[in-house]
Design brief:
Distance between the termini: 107 Å
Number of strands: 6
Radius of gyration: 50 Å
Helix content: 40-55%
Strand order of the largest sheet: 1-4
Shape: rod-shaped
Order of helices and strands: HHHEEEHEEEH
Strand content: 5-15%
Number of helices: 5
Length: about 270
């Protein structure tokens, strides 16, 4: 459209006059600028714009990848931790089960040995010397842990003389592989004391009266008593005489575990 006032025509004629006054060199320079420089500037601007947009996109993608990687690592870590905890729990359970099973087998073996002792003792003539000889050889070494005292806070017990490791014993890794993670505990010596397995061996008549009795402890009275009366038994709580009447030849009666109450003013471990 042409302005009715003729302003555009005037500007055009002014530009033509200005162009006409330019030398050929100036015209070539202007043409070169329009043909070469301006496109290069435009291309440079487009390249910078595209580079900037690409950098922004890459930054966003990197952040997303970082978040995804962090989530993946966290998930893998949680999974690995859970698997490790499960494996350790199973290993600990297996070790505890093995320990309890071995302990139960040892206890059972000990009790079967006592059954054999009882059957052998039943074949002996009721004689004090024979009984004394029998229980005299039935002993077992027990670890003596020494004397204990109450801790200063009054909440636990501690040994009067804590056992000290024997530093005379040494151990070497033995191979380069063991050096990387070698552990060794020096042996701690304990005092062993030979203790009798049986505190009392008694022959009881059918009337309930004790005929022969041998004791190895001051806790039990060596006097012969009538065990048909519960008041004459250990801590007045044994009822084995009634059960003995029902036994058949070769059978063994095992009574409940009975112990005297020992009072203490200390409550705690």
């Amino acid at each position: 459209m042409v302005n009715p006032t003729g302003t555009d025509n005037t500007a055009a004629r002014g530009m033509m006059k200005a162009w006409g006054r330019l030398s050929l060199k100036s015209r070539l320079i202007l043409v070169f600028i329009f043909i070469k420089v301006l496109p290069l500037i435009l291309l440079g601007w487009l390249a910078w714009t595209m580079s900037y947009n690409t950098a922004v996109d890459l930054t966003k993608q990197a952040k997303r990848l970082l978040i995804m990687a962090d989530e993946t690592i966290r998930h893998v870590g949680n999974t690995a931790t859970a698997d490790a905890v499960t494996a350790l729990d199973e290993r600990a359970r297996e070790e505890i089960e093995r320990l309890t099973t071995d302990t139960a087998k040892n206890v059972a073996a000990f009790l079967y040995e006592r059954d054999a002792d009882i059957r052998y003792a039943s074949s002996l003539e009721p004689d004090a010397a024979a009984y004394r000889n029998f229980i005299g050889y039935k002993k077992r070494d027990l670890i003596y842990h020494g004397d204990w005292k109450l801790a200063e806070n009054g909440k636990s017990w501690e040994p009067v003389k804590p056992p000290q490791p024997d530093a005379s014993y040494t151990a070497v890794p033995g191979s380069p592989d063991n050096v990387r993670d070698f552990h060794y505990r020096m042996p701690i010596p304990f005092e062993k004391r030979s203790m009798p397995l049986y505190l009392e061996m008694t022959f009881v008549g059918r009337d309930g009266r004790e005929r022969v009795k041998i004791t190895t402890s001051d806790l039990l009275s060596p006097a012969l008593k009538d065990v048909s009366d519960t008041a004459n038994t250990y801590v007045k709580a044994e009822h084995y005489f009634t059960a003995l009447k029902k036994l058949k030849p070769g059978e063994i009666y095992v009574s409940d575990v009975i112990g005297a109450y020992v009072g203490s003013k200390i409550i705690g471990p």
